[in-house]
Amino acid sequence: MTAPAVKLRITEIFASIQGESTWVGLPTVFVRLTGCPLRCSWCDTAYAFTGGENRSLDEVLAEVARHGLKHVCVTGGEPLSQKGCLPLLSALCDAGYAVSLETSGALDIGAADPRVSRIMDLKAPGSGEVERNLYDNIAQLKADDEVKIVLANADDYAWAKQQIATHRLAERCTVLLSPVAGELDPAQLAEWIVRDRLPVRFQLQLHKILWNDARGR
Ligand SMILES: C[S@@+](CC[C@H](N)C(=O)[O-])C[C@H]1O[C@@H](n2cnc3c(N)ncnc32)[C@H](O)[C@@H]1O
Ligand SMILES: Nc1nc2[nH]cc(C(=O)O)c2c(=O)[nH]1
Ligand code: SF4
Ligand SMILES: [Mg+2]
After folding, report:
1. Looking at ligand 1, which residue's alpha carbon is closest to its atom 21?
2. FRET partner for 100 with CA separation of 20 to 30 A, picked from 79, 137, 149, 157?
């Protein structure tokens, strides 16, 4: 009996410079899956909540291959909200790509192919989705995963400090602190991090510096 066809709903596939995580700066193919069960107040990708096109796994792999890059970032929307995301991740790894997964932290990361670098958000209160954090994910984090906390204000920063200490996040993997574009002054966040000697990596969304909020960049 042949395996059922893998279905994927895709918003966009594009080549750009990785703008986030420790992979920042690398030419990368982005595969943006459609749909998300969360509605973070500051989400910069609401256009991926709906729409998209049905694509087969083979069609997606062929389009990724046409870009001729080594790095692939599977994102969304919330990619793990589609069952097809898991076989997509494994097929990309089997094809020899270096794969990262951008995920909200609200869904179980445990079934993702262990070769994938999971860039997992921990939603701060300013997102309006702090209740959705799935704390069981933390014990599953590997050294090549990353936790990203996007901060909208000083309260979010205080919350992040508490989370980092309580869950000893920096002992597990890289912790990224990222300011909400247009809400928290990046320089202010950088000064807090240095002042408090936080064991984190400050991040700015590089692609927004290059191309503002353009889609498909
Ligand atoms: C669009 S989300 C898609 C992946 C997944 N749904 C998630 O939330 O991690 C990709 C990344 O962009 C971040 N992000 C979304 N809107 C942002 C904003 N306005 N400022 C800074 N980061 C933002 C998210 O926190 C997440 O780390
Ligand atoms: N250039 C670029 N880098 C990114 N890294 C993570 C992104 C995302 O939307 O998940 C993203 C994105 O949308 N564009
Ligand atoms: S989980 Fe990700 S895609 Fe969904 S609303 Fe939040 S930032 Fe946007
Ligand atoms: Mg983005």
Report:
1. 180
2. 157
